Task: inverse folding
């Protein structure tokens, strides 16, 4: 079982967190601080698995980001490395070439993609085509909702403008009637 997923920049900034096990806010901060210090200081030629508090933390560096997953001791590390690779490939397909700014400015989409791949710390969908199809369907739903919202907003704006113009005309009519115009 995956207990949490972290994405950390080379500067130690957390860009993505997803917790599948209960941790208090204080524990989360301590975990992030410990792991970022441990992973960022490791050499590039060392293995991508770290023993930590009775768990294994499997990580992989892509450009300026470290993607980390904490798993039980008896879980398969290679499978977790494949899940990390799968997640990054999916992000790359969605964003073009994923970078740190994509995770910052499009965090809703990033979490949606992660939720399509993992649920409750377990791999939900292993088919790339299925995940890509679900992500595309979600994007089309969002676009349809935006178009509908824009249409409703436009109608409300036009109605407000019409009522404002009629009110202005009414006031102008009163001004002429009482000798102000």
Result:
């Amino acid at each position: 079982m995956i207990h949490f997923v972290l994405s950390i920049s080379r500067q130690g900034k957390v860009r993505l967190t997803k917790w599948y096990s209960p941790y208090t806010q204080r524990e989360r901060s301590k975990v992030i601080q410990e792991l970022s210090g441990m992973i960022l200081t490791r050499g590039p030629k060392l293995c991508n698995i770290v023993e930590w508090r009775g768990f294994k933390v499997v990580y992989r560096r892509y450009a300026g980001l470290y993607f980390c997953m904490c798993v039980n001791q008896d879980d398969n590390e290679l499978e977790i490395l494949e899940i990390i690779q799968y997640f990054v490939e999916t992000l790359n397909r969605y964003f073009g070439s994923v970078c740190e700014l994509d995770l910052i400015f499009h965090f809703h989409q990033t979490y949606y993609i992660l939720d399509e791949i993992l649920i409750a710390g377990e791999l939900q969908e292993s088919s790339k085509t299925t995940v890509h199809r679900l992500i595309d369907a979600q994007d089309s739903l969002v676009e349809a909702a935006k178009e509908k919202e824009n249409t409703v907003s436009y109608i409300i704006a036009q109605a407000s403008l019409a009522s404002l113009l009629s009110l202005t005309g009414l006031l102008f009519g009163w001004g002429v009637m009482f000798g102000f115009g």
About this structure: The longest helix spans residues 128-177.
